Amino acid sequence: MKFLLTTTEVYRFNDEPSAVKFIEDEKTKPGYTVIKSAVDYKERKQKGEVIDFWWKVTLVKKFNDEKEPERDVDVTYDNGSAF
After folding, report:
1. How much is the average pLDDT of 43-55?
2. Which residues, other chains included, contact 65 with Cβ-Cβ below 8 Å and sequence gap of 6+?
3. pLDDT score, position 77
4. Which residues pair with 9 in a beta bridge?
5. pTM for the predicted model, two decimal places
6. 6 neighbors 61 (Cβ within 8 angstroms)
7. What is the pLDDT of residues 34-48, one digit of tens each?
8. Plot region of 12 (φ>0 → left; ψ -120 to 50 → alpha; else → beta)
9. pLDDT digits (tens, 9 = 90+) for 10-19
10. DSSP labels for the chain?
């Protein structure tokens, strides 16, 4: 039998308030515990000039305890694409 213990998810946001709100929303959802989260400001430069910027959100979600797993979990990711 297999048990999902943790996952790490990385997201990109266009603004910091949306990124922070997303983390807070994820912390309240049932089925897992957010054990680590981070928001990092990123920018892309070209010839010394900032041409793009974003906020990178990293979440580590815990689904089961490694020593005493309680339930089998399947995670499905849907990207909304036909491919």
Report:
1. 95
2. 5
3. 79
4. 59
5. 0.84
6. yes
7. 999 999 999 999 999
8. beta
9. 999 999 999 9
10. -----EEEEEEEESSHHHHHHHHHHHHT-TT-EEEEEEEEEEEEEETTEEEEEEEEEEEEEE-S-SSS-----------S---
Q: How many CB atoms lie within 10 A of CB 59?
A: 19
What does the pLDDT read at residue 67? 93
Contact predicate 37/58, CB 8 Å: yes
> Which residues are within 8 A (CB) of 44 and not within 5 positions of it... i.e. 6 or more apart?
50, 51, 52, 53
Instruction: Single out the residue of 6, 5, 40, 48 nearest to residue 20, CA to CA.
Output: 40
At position 66, the amino acid (one-letter code) is E
